[in-house]
């Protein structure tokens, strides 16, 4: 059986270290070296203090679900319907789109605490995902 | 500098026959391409204006059609021109007229999105591999414009205490208006129960929350106020405009998910109200860019039609359909009339102010408000006399 490819990111130059860190199961985000503002997506300057100095730092992996949806129509072969997507706010501040692994909350998912985990897709790609916190 | 009130007015409107083209496209025909639809609409608008074509010295073309080709087809060598979406076109025409770059501007839009099989989600979606969301969303299977609005709607509904039935009021009201509009593609009325029983596309949004995808064209002729007064029996003035954007966190959806565009809508609204000298209480009708139904409650709160947090009561107790407190999207909007990417709303504003809206005419309508909030770019236009 043919394996549906995971939709590949088309990273801009600043995003490459993010995807490298994900591949190593060590998710890092860019951070301003001067004012310590976290950035996702990564970029050329700090939107807060305009500094061009940046570092990459591992995130805590703690997050909260902001919203979730269920696709009832299949748009991508790797994700046949019904397919669920979440938006989480990392404790560092940025919002990420992802998926929930494992057990699902009953009722509303909004406000549920989740923790970072890594999924290996059928085609071998590593994706950062989240599971309900213990 | 305070912007001049009523610098420009709309003197001509035109559109293609959306209903006939919908049927023909569904039967497998290809009635026209985007240039063809735009040209048909232009012919109508020019005729409606009654002015000589030679007086047109400006041209703005919708983003779905090549500008130079459009000018070539219409025979317009203008001294000012460009390409923009619906609301930007109106604002740019207004600015160009006020700045003296042009006196009479034709705005033309054509789209063969249905017959061309345009995709708004998935790997072949517009923008394809270079679209920003392909880096930040699609690896997790998040694609399609509707899904972005579904994420917004879920959180918004929970924060505002709205049920799906409350949300269904938007689609039900707009379909009721469309039932009175012969130019609307979907005219069969629906109930809240029909809405709830309908299929989900991206939950919590149902199929009735999504805009249509159809072929067609729209054109407008906007002129300097003095010229309009001299040449047109029934000009409709642009009384006020405003714009405010939210870009911080745009890629990670912060303005959509947690701000619901509210600060930008409030600012754009305030600017337009000040210039026009009117407020939401003075509007006879409210037209909202509605690629998805959720735009409507966001705009009702954002532009001050109801207090923030009370949109559920506004929708269910006061009402936005026929007989309701505030007529909203009286043509049926993108959900039921036609998906002309905001262009058809401008035509409806003009028709209502001209008292030419037929069975759905708002009695003695003098002032009509149009707003859009596409991707955090919030804009407000007040039409009237």
TrEMBL record, chain A:
<dbReference type="Pfam" id="PF01796">
    <property type="entry name" value="OB_ChsH2_C"/>
</dbReference>
<dbReference type="InterPro" id="IPR052513">
    <property type="entry name" value="Thioester_dehydratase-like"/>
</dbReference>
<feature type="domain" description="ChsH2 C-terminal OB-fold">
    <location>
        <begin position="56"/>
        <end position="117"/>
    </location>
</feature>
<dbReference type="InterPro" id="IPR022002">
    <property type="entry name" value="ChsH2_Znr"/>
</dbReference>
<dbReference type="Pfam" id="PF12172">
    <property type="entry name" value="zf-ChsH2"/>
</dbReference>
<dbReference type="InterPro" id="IPR002878">
    <property type="entry name" value="ChsH2_C"/>
</dbReference>
<dbReference type="InterPro" id="IPR012340">
    <property type="entry name" value="NA-bd_OB-fold"/>
</dbReference>
<feature type="domain" description="ChsH2 rubredoxin-like zinc ribbon">
    <location>
        <begin position="29"/>
        <end position="52"/>
    </location>
</feature>
<protein>
    <submittedName>
        <fullName>OB-fold domain-containing protein</fullName>
    </submittedName>
</protein>
Automatic annotation (TrEMBL), chain B:
<dbReference type="InterPro" id="IPR002155">
    <property type="entry name" value="Thiolase"/>
</dbReference>
<dbReference type="InterPro" id="IPR055140">
    <property type="entry name" value="Thiolase_C_2"/>
</dbReference>
<dbReference type="Pfam" id="PF22691">
    <property type="entry name" value="Thiolase_C_1"/>
</dbReference>
<protein>
    <submittedName>
        <fullName>Thiolase family protein</fullName>
    </submittedName>
</protein>
<dbReference type="GO" id="GO:0016747">
    <property type="term" value="F:acyltransferase activity, transferring groups other than amino-acyl groups"/>
</dbReference>
<dbReference type="InterPro" id="IPR016039">
    <property type="entry name" value="Thiolase-like"/>
</dbReference>
<feature type="domain" description="Thiolase C-terminal">
    <location>
        <begin position="259"/>
        <end position="367"/>
    </location>
</feature>
């Amino acid at each position: 059986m043919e394996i549906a490819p995971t939709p590949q990111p088309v990273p801009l130059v600043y995003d490459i270290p993010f995807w490298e860190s994900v591949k190593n199961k060590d998710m890092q985000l860019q951070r301003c070296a001067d004012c310590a503002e976290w950035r996702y997506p990564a970029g050329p300057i700090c939107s807060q203090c305009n500094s061009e100095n940046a570092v990459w730092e591992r995130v805590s992996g703690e997050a909260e679900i902001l919203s979730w949806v269920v696709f009832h129509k299949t748009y991508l072969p790797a994700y046949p319907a019904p397919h669920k997507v979440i938006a989480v706010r990392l404790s560092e501040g940025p919002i990420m789109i992802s998926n929930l692994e494992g057990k699902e909350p009953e009722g509303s998912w909004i406000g549920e605490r989740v923790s970072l985990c890594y999924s290996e897709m059928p085609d071998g790609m590593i994706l950062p995902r989240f599971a309900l916190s213990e | 500098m305070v912007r001049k009130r009523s610098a420009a007015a709309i003197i001509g409107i035109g559109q293609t026959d959306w209903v006939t083209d919908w049927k023909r496209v569904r039967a497998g025909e290809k009635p026209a391409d985007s240039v063809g639809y735009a040209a048909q609409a232009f012919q109508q608008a020019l005729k409606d204006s009654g002015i000589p074509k030679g007086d047109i010295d400006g041209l703005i073309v919708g983003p779905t059609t090549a500008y130079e080709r459009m000018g070539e087809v219409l025979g317009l060598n203008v001294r000012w021109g460009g390409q923009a979406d619906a609301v930007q076109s109106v604002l740019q025409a207004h600015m160009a007229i006020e700045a003296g770059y042009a006196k009479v501007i034709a705005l033309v839009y054509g789209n063969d999105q249905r017959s061309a099989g345009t995709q708004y989600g998935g790997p072949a979606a517009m923008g394809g591999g270079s679209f920003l969301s392909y880096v930040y969303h699609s690896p997790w299977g998040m694609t399609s414009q509707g899904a972005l609005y579904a994420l917004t709607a879920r959180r918004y509904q929970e924060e505002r205490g709205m049920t799906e039935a409350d949300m269904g009021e938007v689609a039900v009201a707009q379909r009721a208006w469309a039932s009175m509009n012969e130019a609307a593609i979907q005219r069969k009325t629906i109930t809240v129960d029909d809405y709830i029983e309908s299929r989900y596309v991206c939950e919590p949004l149902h199929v009735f929350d999504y805009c249509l995808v159809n072929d067609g064209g729209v054109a407008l002729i906007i002129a300097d106020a003095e010229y309009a007064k001299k040449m047109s029996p029934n000009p409709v003035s642009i009384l006020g405009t405003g714009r405010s954007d939210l870009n911080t966190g745009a890629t990670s959806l912060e303005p959509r998910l947690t701000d619901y565009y509210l600060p930008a809508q409030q600012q754009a609204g305030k600017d337009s109200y000040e210039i026009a000298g009117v407020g939401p209480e003075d509007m006879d009708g409210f037209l909202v860019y509605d690629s998805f139904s959720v735009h409507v409650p966001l705009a009702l709160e954002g532009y001050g039609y109801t207090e923030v947090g009370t949109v559920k009561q506004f929708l269910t107790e006061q009402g936005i359909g026929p007989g309701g407190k505030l007529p909203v999207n009286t043509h049926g909007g993108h959900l039921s009339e036609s998906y002309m990417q905001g262009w058809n709303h401008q035509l409806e504003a003009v028709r209502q102010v001209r008292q030419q809206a037929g069975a759905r005419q708002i009695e003695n309508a003098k002032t009509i408000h149009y707003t859009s909030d596409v991707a955090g770019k919030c804009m407000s236009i007040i039409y009237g006399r």
